[in-house]
Amino acid sequence: MKKRTVFANLLAPLLFSVFLLSACNPYERPLTVGAAPWPSFEFLFLAEQLGYLPETQYSLFELPSSTSVIQAFQTGKLDVAFLSLDEVLTLVALGINLKIVTVIDQSVGGDALLVKPEIKTLQDLKWRSIGYENKAAGALLLDETFTLSGLNNQTIQLVEVKQSEAKDVYMQGNIDGLIVREPEKQQLLALGARELLNSSVLQQRITHLIVVRDDIFVSKEQQITHLLKQYYQAYHYYLSNEKDAITTMAVRLQVYPYLLEASFKGTFFIKPKDALMRLSGSPSNIELQANQLSQFMTEKNMLGKIPNNFKSIITTRILERVIYE
Amino acid sequence: MNNINKLSLNILIPSILFLVFIFLQGSVFFLEYQHAQKKLYNEKAQYIKGIAGNLQTTLSNSLMRLEKAQAQNIVSVTALDQNFKTIAVVDHNQQIILSNTLRDKYMFAKLQLAHYDGKLLQQVIEKNEFIFQYNQLTQDLIVYAPLQMLSKGNSLNRKFNGLIFIRYSLTSAITELRYQALFSLIKIAVTLLVSLFVLIYIINRFIITPLIKLAKSSKISDLNYQIEVDQTGMGEIGSLQRTFAELANTVGKRIRALSASEQRWLYALSGARDGVWDWDIEQDCVYYSARWKEMIGFKKEEIEHDIEAWESRIHEDDLFSVLKEWQLHFSGKNSFFESTHRIRCHNGEYRWILSRGQTISWDIHGLPLRVIGTTADVSKYKQSQQNLSHQAQFDEVTQLPNRTQLLKHIEQENARAKHNDLHGAIIFIECHQYKTINDLLGHFKGDQLLHAVARRLEEAKTGPDFIAHLHGSEFVAILPDLHQNREHAAEMALAFSKKLDEKLKLAFNIDEEVIILSSAFGIELFPSQDTDADDLLRQSAMAMKFAKESQFSNISFFAKEIEQKIRARHIMQKQIHFGLENDEFSLYFQPRIDADGQLIGAEALSRWLHSAQGWINPAQFIPVAEDSGLILPLGDWVIKTAFEQLAKWQLLGLPETFTTLSINVSPKQLLQIGFSASIEHHLAQTKVDPKLIEIEITEDVLLTHKERVIDKLNQLRALGIRFAIDDFGTGYSSFSYLSVLPVSTLKIDQSFIANLMEDNNQQVIVSAIINMAQSLQLEVVAEGVESQAQLDFLIEQGCTQFQGYLVGTPMARQDFQTLLFKKQ
Lengths: 325, 824
Known about the structure:
The structure holds 2 protein chains of 2 kinds. Chain A has helices spanning 2-23, 42-49, 66-74, 85-93, 138-149, 166-172, 184-190, 214-217, 221-240, 242-253, 257-264, 272-279, 285-299, 317-324, and strands spanning 31-35, 58-62, 80-84, 98-107, 111-115, 129-132, 157-160, 177-181, 194-198, 207-213, 267-269. Chain A is α/β, with parallel strands linked by helices. Chain A has 2 domains: 31-107 and 205-324, D-Maltodextrin-Binding Protein, domain 2 (3-Layer(aba) Sandwich); 111-201, Periplasmic binding protein-like II (D-Maltodextrin-Binding Protein, domain 2, 3-Layer(aba) Sandwich). Chain A has a 6-stranded mixed beta sheet with strand order 2-1-3-10-4-11, sandwiched between helices. In chain A, β1 (31-35), α2 (42-49) and β2 (58-62) form a beta-alpha-beta unit. The radius of gyration of chain A is 23 Å and the shape is globular. By secondary structure, chain B is α+β, with helices and mostly antiparallel strands. Chain B has 4 domains: 13-17 and 25-178, PAS domain (Beta-Lactamase, 2-Layer Sandwich), CATH 3.30.450; 273-385, Beta-Lactamase, CATH 3.30.450.20; 403-558, Reverse transcriptase/Diguanylate cyclase domain (Alpha-Beta Plaits), CATH 3.30.70.270; 588-605 and 629-822, TIM Barrel. Chain B contains 27 helices and 27 strands. In chain B, β12 and β13 (474-483) form a beta hairpin. The longest helix of chain B has 56 residues, at 9-64. In chain B, 31% of the residues are buried. At the A-B interface, α1, β2, α3, α6 and α10 of A face α3 and α6 of B.
C-alpha cells in the first residue's frame, strides 16, 4: 500500500510536468511592433535608437503608412500597433480581436488638407482632385471637407495617396489637394502648399492609441508593459533632451529638425496618468469616444459592421502596471 | 557479476530499457535535428531567393515609374518579418536608396549596412549576377540581387542599375528549431520516464512481488509441514508458482519420508548405543555424535570438531595400528576402515572402541573427501577377550606364563641367541615336597604354595629373564644373553640356580603352616644346533631328573662335559688358592741374550708344583686364575718374589751385562687400583734397581683402557721401570700407540719365529717389525728362537735380543743363578 502511494507521489508530478511542457513553448519570439510616421509614434523608434528595447525581445517595423500598419496587424504580422481610433475601429469591424492598452495623443492640427498654392478656398476644389489615404484618419478630414464645402465625391475626384507617396504626388503636380499628416504636412508646407483645413476643427478628434493583439495580450503582458515603459521613457528623454531627440528622430523621418519640431505642434501628447483616466471608468472616455466615432463612421459608410461592446477592447491593466510598478 | 545478479529486476529491466531508449532516441534526435536544420536552410534559402526575385520585379517597376514611395512601401512591407535584418536597395554609387530602416536611407551602404560587401556591387551590376551567400557564423542568408532602377531613353545603361541587398537571419529560426527539438526530447524523455514508472509498477505488481513471495515460501526450511504457496500470479508467473507448489509438496513428501528413514537409522544407532562420526577431510571437520562423546565421558561441547580430537586420544600403543588401518583403507586395499583401539576418556582411563567407517566421496584425484562411520564401546568384550587370552597363555594358579608361552619363548630366545652369538640357559625347577603337601593339605593350599613359589622365583629374576609354570611344582626359568662363552654362561646359570635354591630353601608360611621345600635344578644351555624348543625343555627336564637322583648336587647340567669343566675349574681355583698359601709356586727364569750370545737378562716365569698332581701347565692355571681373580695374589707374589730374587743377586754382585729382569703382568693386575703403589712398596722393601725391571704387558690391555694404562705406565716409568710389549704382532695392534706409550722394547711373538725359515711372509713381517722398532728406537726381543738359522736371520735383520730354547729354557732359580754367575 505504501508502495502505491510512493508511485502516486512520483507519477502525479511527472504527469503534471508533461502537461506543463506541452502547454508552453520555451522559445519566446520577439514582440513585433509597427508604426507609420507620426510625431508621437517616433518615441517608439527613439526608444529603440536609445537602446531601451533589446533586439531579441522587440522587433520594430518601420512602415510607411497607416494602411501598411493596418494590413500588417490584420495579417498577424504585428503584435502591437500604433494607430488612430478610427483605424482601430476599422480593424474591430473586420473582426480582429485586440486590446487598447493606452492612449498616446490627440491630433490638434497634425492632420491637414493641403492644396496647391493657387487654390484659395475649399470651393476652389470643385472638379479638382484630392488625394487621401482611405483607411486612415484622413478620411475623417475629407468628410469634414465635404461637409464644410458642400462638395461630394461626385464633384471631387478622389485619389488614393498613401502617406509616404504624398510628397512625390504633390511634386508631380497632378493632384490639387492632399490630406496628409505630420511630418509630411510640414514637408509640403515647406514646398509651398497651402493648408486649408486641419484636425483641430474636427468634431471627432483624431486620437492615437496603442493596440495589442488579443491572443498575445495575456502571454506577453510583461513584454508589452516593458515596451510601454520604454516608450514613455523615450518621451521623457525627448522632454529633457529635446534637441538631441528631435535630431535623432529627424534622421529617420528624413526631415529637417525644425520641420519636425513644427510637426509636434500639431499633436497633443497624453501622459500616462491622463491616458489611464481616459481608459478608466464605465463607460470610459475612450469607450464613449469610440461609440460616437463608430456611429459617425457607420453613418458615413466608413464602417461596415458596428461593434457593440467597446468595453471589452479596452484594458487598463498594462497602463496601471506602467504607472505603478 | 554477483552484484549484477543481486540487482532487482525492478531496476535492471527499466535501466536497460532506459539506456536503450536514450541511445536510440538520442541518435534519432541528432539525425532529425541535422535534417531539420538542413531543411530549414533550404526552405529559407528558397524563400529568400523568391523574395529577392519578387523584389527585383516590383521594385524595378516602381522605380522605373519613379514611384519611389511605392518602392519604399514594398520594401517596408516585405520586411514585415523580424528575421529580415536588412532589405536595402543600393545604387551604383553605393548609396542606399531604399531600406526597411528609414534611418539608413541616402547613407553610404558600405558604412551603414552590416555585413554588406561593397566590392560585389560592381560584379552584380556589370554581370547582372545574383549572389547568394550564407554566413555560417552569424547564421545570415545574404542576397545581392541586381536591380534595374531607371530607364532613360529606353537604354539599358547599367550605370543606373543597382542592387537589392537582403540580410535574413536564421538565428531565431534555428534557435526555435533547437528549442523545439529540445522540448520534444524532454517531452519524450518525460513520457519515457512515466512509461518506465508504469513498467516498474507492472513488473513489480505482476512479476517481482509474486517472485519475492515465491522466494520467501521457498526459504521455508521446515518442510515437514504443508507449504502454502501463493498461486494468484498471472501467466508464466502463475505457472511457475503452480510448478513450485507441486515441487514443494513433492519435496516435502520426500523429505518427510527421508526424515522418517533418518529417524529409523537414528533409533537404530541409539538403540545400538553406537557413536557416529562424519569426517570432512578437506575441511578437517569431524562431526562426533553425542553418543560418540558420551562413550568417552565427554559432554557435547567439550570436544573439538577435528580429527585431532580423536587422534590425540588414541593410546600410543594403538596409534600405529590405527593409522595403518586408515592407510589401508585410503589406499583402497581395505574397502572399509575397521580398527579396535584404546581411547583416552575424560577421566584419563582408556576404553576399547571398535570404529568402522567407509569413504563416501572422493575428489577427482581419487583422494578421500568424506568418511562416515560408527564407533562401538567394546571394552567389555575386549576385557573378556584379554582374560581368555591370558588364560590361554598364563597359568591360573601362579599367574605365570604357561607351557604354550614358554615354548614360544624358548623358540624365540634360541633363535635370538644363535643370531647374537650369546649363550643362554634354561633352568628346569621342581620342588620335591609339593605332591605330598598337595595330598596332605589339599589343592587349595597346594595352589597357595605354588603361588608363593612363583613369587619367590619372580623376585629372583632380572631384566630379560623369563619364568613359566608347567604343571604341578614344575617351573622353568629362561636366562637369555648370559655370555659369549659357553662355559661362562654355564657358570652364570649355575650361580642363578644356586640363588634360586637359596630362596626356595627358606620356609613358606601357608595359613600358619610352615613348609620347607627342597628343589632340583636342571640346566640346559642354548643355542644348540638342531634342537627345537621342545628338545631344549626336555633336555633341561632330564638334567633336573638327573640332579634329583644325584647324591652330590641338586643342580645338574644336561651337557656333562660342561659340568665337568666347571667342576675342574672350581677344583683348580681351590688348588691355586691352596698352592699360594703353601708355597707350591716358584719362579723360573728364562735367559735372554744379545747378538753376541751374552746373557743380558731373564724373564721371570711362575711355575706350580702341585703336591699331588706334580707340575701343572701355566696354560691350565693362568686362565683359571685370571677368571677367578686369583691372578692378583698370584701376580703380586710373582713381582714380590722376582724383586726379592733380584735383590739377592744384586747383593751377590750382578754382572754388568745383566740389565733386564722381565716380569709378566696380566691386564687385570695392571688395571688394579693399587698396582703402582704395590710396585713402589716392593721396590722400597727389596731396594732393587728399578732400571733393571722390565714389565711385560700385552697389547690387548690397550684396547679397552688405553688412557688409564698410559697414565699408569708413565707413573711407573718415572720410577725407572721399563716396559715391553709381549706377544707383539698377535693382538689388535694399532701402531699409533707405540708413539704414545712409554715402552722401550717389543717382543716378537714366538709364532712368527716358529716358521720363520719356512715361511717367506713371516720373514717379511719380522723384518718390518724390526725395522719399525729400530726407527722408533725400540729394543726388539725375538721369542721362541729354536734354531741357529733363525738366530742368524734375526741377527742379520738387526734384531738385538733373543729368547728361546736355543738360548736357554726357563731355569729354576738355582740353575739360573749358577748360569748368571758362572762366567764371573
